[in-house]
Amino acid sequence: MLSARKAVQNLQEYHPPLGRRDGLRLDFNENTEGCSPRVLQRLREITAEDLARYPERESVENLVAQHLSLTPEQVLLTNGVDEAVHLLCEAYLEAEDEAIVVTPTFSMYEIYAGATGARPVRVPCDGEFRFPLAGILDAITPATRVIATASPNNPTGTVASREELLRVAHAAPDAALLVDEAYFEFHGTTLLGDIGATRNLFVARTFSKAYGMAGLRIGILAGPGEQMAAVRRVASPYNVNGIALALLPAALTDGGYIRDYVSQVIDGRRRLACEMRVLGIHAWPSQANFLLLRIGERHREFVALMRQRGILVRDRSSDPGCRGCVRVTVGTGPQTERLIAALKEVVAELKLGSEVAV
Predict the structure, then answer these.
(1) Domains of the chain
(2) Of the candidates 122, 93, 310, 85, which has an alpha carbon nearest to the alpha carbon of residue 204?
(3) Are 248 and 224 in contact (CB under 8 A)?
(4) Do 262 and 210 form a contact (C-beta atoms < 8 A)?
(5) DSSP reduced 3-state for 211
(6) Cβ atoms of residues 311 and 13 within 8 Å
(7) Which of 136, 161, 138, 157 is nearest to 148 (CA)?
(8) How many whole angstroms separate alpha carbon 342 and alpha carbon 355?
(9) What would you measure as the largest C-alpha separation in the chain, in angstroms?
(10) What are 213-244's pLDDT values in tens digits?
(11) Residue 357 above 50 pLDDT?
């Protein structure tokens, strides 16, 4: 009887809680306003002939490389960061290899690594979700072939310093270090400039967050040119759809739109953190477009009551080290006002505050 590989049979599936998302969507870290008007205008110009053609990445990759001050050989457009992770695992992991994953974090790192037959090795952050540099260095073995981390991290919003990440890369020269910068725009610090001098460093970016193009599924994997040649061998030449490729140049031209949205988010993040201190709710310092809140044992009620007020937030209690935690995306100024008003009501109704227990 036909059966899948054992590595696939043993994988834990990831089922994001999509569906029934009517309301203010502060649950998936999406851009809460949507894409630039320039992107919508370009979408209206798409023709039937455009849709009948196979997509061609090269010219858009060249444009993206120029935008990032990289060479075309260093850049691959991908079907979101998800595919970037998948391709990296396919290129570098053999069965019985090890992939170090900093937790809590994006679930797909571990899933894609495990699908190859490699063994995911979890390295947990401490109680404040600080980057576990010492733990990673201790976990590196001759079998380590991939190390995956996000900075800013999801769901915590915490970051690793450039010095820490480069120390990891240098400590594991035979492993591909993936730094997922999906939330770069809200943080402003990148390792892209270190790719040329660090031969095992890869950086992923996405247009799903600040750019408001999550539905188009387009991201970037950047790395040393000689290593990216190997990654391209396991990528489909048609991995990014033609509509996404047609719209991305328009998105890149509207830096003012992105800067305005990011500015509102950063201001809202600061205001929300201040309000949480006043309410006695612990929020971890974040450099992303969200805050992780420690709600405690009534986290499910909290999420439900926010939904009743038309605001969706994400329960992260099942993540390692996140028991009782809820993640809240930050949007525009008016949306943050609405969020804070609802939070005050729910915190009062549930009698949450300084004595919240996890």
Answers:
(1) 6-30+256-350 (3.90.1150.10), 37-253 (3.40.640.10)
(2) 85
(3) no
(4) yes
(5) coil
(6) no
(7) 136
(8) 20
(9) 62
(10) 999 999 999 999 999 999 999 999 999 999 99
(11) no
